[in-house]
Design brief:
The longest helix is centred in the last third of the chain and has 15 residues. Helix 3 crosses helix 5. It is built from six helices and no strands. Helices cover about 60% and strands about 0% of the residues. It has one domain: 434 Repressor (Amino-terminal Domain) (Orthogonal Bundle), CATH 1.10.260. The protein has about 90 residues and is mostly helical.
Length: about 90
């Protein structure tokens, strides 16, 4: 196992951290918190998923879709994945 501060570990971590995402701005614009998305979501999501989505941690396509569906349910709008995330696979 590699130490957490090894160059390989740090490079992998940088690849997964994508920086702040538009989703965080949209949530703030609508006055939403993580709890609002968890409650409104038609699927099972966690507070940790929402936090990672807003902070820009790389998410699987399936989790990104869940985040989009939750935000759409909470706002009554129809956002696309491109509206919420500034990265693709």
């Amino acid at each position: 196992m590699r130490p957490p501060d090894s160059p390989v570990s740090m490079a992998a971590d940088l690849e997964r951290n994508r920086g702040g995402q538009p989703m965080a701005s949209l949530m703030a614009e609508h006055g939403l918190r993580a709890q609002d998305l968890v409650v409104a979501s038609p699927e099972l999501i966690t507070y940790k998923m929402v936090a990672r989505a807003c902070k820009g941690r790389w998410l699987t396509p399936h989790v990104r879709i869940k985040m989009r569906n939750a935000l759409n349910a909470a706002t009554g709008r129809e956002y696309t994945l491109a509206d919420l995330f500034n990265y693709q696979d």
